[in-house]
Every structure is written in structure tokens, then in C-alpha cells.
């Protein structure tokens, strides 16, 4: 903005200078005009733009640069505002997430403590039951299922053999009587 003002002031000064330069005669010798000058000299601003043309281009460049810069700043401010609002939302969501996870962790730790206490109680009950089982296990009582089955099988075999023996003896007695 300051650069545009400075360029505008320089243009004003140069235009005034060149307007006055056409009327200036300080460098002329006497009152006679040299033959070379058919018309008053106004400088060379019309050829290729001159200094005034260059300053006008600079002034338009500054104006375009200022417009582009303001647009870029507005875009950057908009992006920053969006980022800030998204960050605030994310930060709030993350805080809630941390709060929920902390609560869940606390609940799970309490549940773990309760389960450990239950496990200790159950282990004590199991130890007591095993000790009682060891007391009931003396030699007269066999806890082994296969031992019980084997004993029953032997008894049954003895009974069957006894019945067979008795039956064969009875047959023999019948055979002898006949």
C-alpha cells in the first residue's frame, strides 16, 4: 500500500515536471530558438513508455500484487480457521475418548481385583476339598474307577464260576441218578 502511494506520488511529480519542461527555456541561449527545435521539447516519455510508463507498470504490478496477497491471506486465514475449529473438535473428542477409556480401565481393574479375590476363595475351597479327599482315600476305599470295575469283574467272575460249578455238579448228580 505504501509502495503504491509512493509510486503514485512519483508519477504526479514526473507528470508535472514534464508538463513544465515543455515551457522551460532556461537552457536556451538568448531568445532565439535553435533550428533543431521545431517544437518545444517535452521529453521522451511517449517513446516506449519512458519513465512514466515504467512507473505506471510498476504501479499496476503493485496493485495486482496487493490484490493477490490479500486473496492469499484471506485463503490462508480461512484454512487456519478451519484447521483451528477441526483441531478443537478433535481435541474435545480425544478428551472424551480418554475419559471413557480411563473409566473402562478403572472398571476392568476393579473387575480383575474381584476375579482375583474369587479365584483365591475358590482355590482355598479346592485345597480344602482335596485335603478332605486325601483323608477319605485310605486303603479300604479305592478311588480309581478301573480298580472298582476290576474288583466287580472278579466278583462277578467268581459268581459265574461258582454257578457254573454248581450247575455242572447238578448235571453230574442228574447223570448219576439216571
In short:
80% of the residues lie in helices and 0% in strands.
Could you explain the architecture of this structure?
By secondary structure, the protein is mainly α. The chain folds into two domains: 2-141; 142-178. It is 80% helix and 0% strand. It has three helices and no strands. It has helices spanning 2-23, 50-136, 145-177.
C-alpha Rg (nearest Å)? 60 Å
> How far do the termini sit from each other?
149 Å
Residue stretches low in confidence (pLDDT < 50, at least 5 long) are none
Largest sheet: none
Tags for this entry?
178 residues, mainly alpha, 3 helices, 0% strand, rod-shaped
List the helices and strands and how they pair.
Blueprint: H1 2-23, H2 50-136, H3 145-177
Helix pairs in contact: 1-2
Amino acid at each position: 500500500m505504501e509502495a503504491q502511494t509512493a509510486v503514485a506520488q512519483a508519477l504526479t511529480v514526473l507528470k508535472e515536471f514534464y508538463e513544465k519542461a515543455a515551457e522551460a527555456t532556461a537552457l536556451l541561449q538568448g531568445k532565439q530558438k535553435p533550428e533543431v527545435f521545431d517544437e518545444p521539447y517535452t521529453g521522451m516519455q511517449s517513446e516506449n513508455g519512458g519513465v512514466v510508463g515504467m512507473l505506471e507498470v510498476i504501479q499496476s504490478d503493485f496493485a495486482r500484487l496487493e490484490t493477490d496477497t490479500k486473496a492469499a491471506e484471506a485463503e490462508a486465514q480461512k484454512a487456519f480457521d478451519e484447521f483451528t475449529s477441526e483441531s478443537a473438535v478433535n481435541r474435545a473428542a480425544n478428551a472424551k475418548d480418554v475419559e471413557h477409556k480411563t473409566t473402562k480401565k478403572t472398571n476392568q481393574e476393579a473387575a480383575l481385583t474381584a476375579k482375583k479375590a474369587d479365584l483365591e476363595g475358590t482355590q482355598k475351597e479346592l485345597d480344602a476339598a482335596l485335603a478332605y479327599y486325601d483323608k477319605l482315600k485310605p486303603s479300604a476305599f479305592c478311588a480309581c474307577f478301573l480298580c472298582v470295575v476290576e474288583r466287580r469283574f472278579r466278583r462277578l467272575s467268581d459268581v459265574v464260576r461258582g454257578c457254573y460249578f454248581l450247575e455242572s455238579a447238578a448235571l453230574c448228580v442228574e447223570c448219576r441218578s439216571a
